[in-house]
Amino acid sequence: MGEAAESARRSSGGDDSGVAEPERAGVEDAARARRERGIAMMKQVYGWDIGDVHGDFVEVTVDHLFGEIWANGEMSVRERRLLLIGFLLGSGQDDVVGLQLDCATQIGELSIDELRELVLFIAHYGGWPIAARMNAKVEELAARQRHADRASENTDAADGEDP
Question: How many CA atoms are closer than 13 Å to the CA of 58, on its beta-carbon side?
Fold first, then answer.
């Protein structure tokens, strides 16, 4: 049983002595499935593996936020990300916006042109200062992508040359 689940059991006054073995196994199977779903969803959202999941905060993030909320199928990852970007911008969490923009473009969920369109939309509903901060992040991301593309082209060209 994970630390978060064990903590929840203790805080609820739960006692394993009255729980039948098959019921306990079912609860553990459900928790394991939620953990696996959360890890898979985090990889889908961010494009990388989270690795080991330790500590209550990380367990709740993986198991609940990603294993239940992001994975519930009511909205697509793209829809959730667009909402999240808007919320993060509106609440001034610019550092986290950069992570969302990077991940969205890395996994092919949003293009630079779509992000530029989002900047224009945000400018009208969220204000020019917020949109200007996002625009700076989008253009920085676009420049990094252009640089990576040129480096890749140079590597490909060098690989194709005869010695």
Answer: 9
Going by the DSSP 8-state scheme, the letter that residue 17 receives in this structure is G
The CA-atom distances, in angstroms, between 97 and each of 36, 39, 93, 151 are: 26, 21, 7, 26
Q: Which of 28, 52, 70 represents a domain boundary (last residue)?
A: 70
| Residue 33: closest CA among 7, 6, 68, 79 | 68
The residue-averaged pLDDT of 10-34 equals: 71
Whether this model's pTM surpasses 0.85: no
Q: How many CB atoms lie within 10 A of CB 77?
A: 15
Start-to-end C-alpha separation, the chain: 59
Indicate if 59 and 114 belong to the same structural domain: no
Tokens of 11: 């805080």
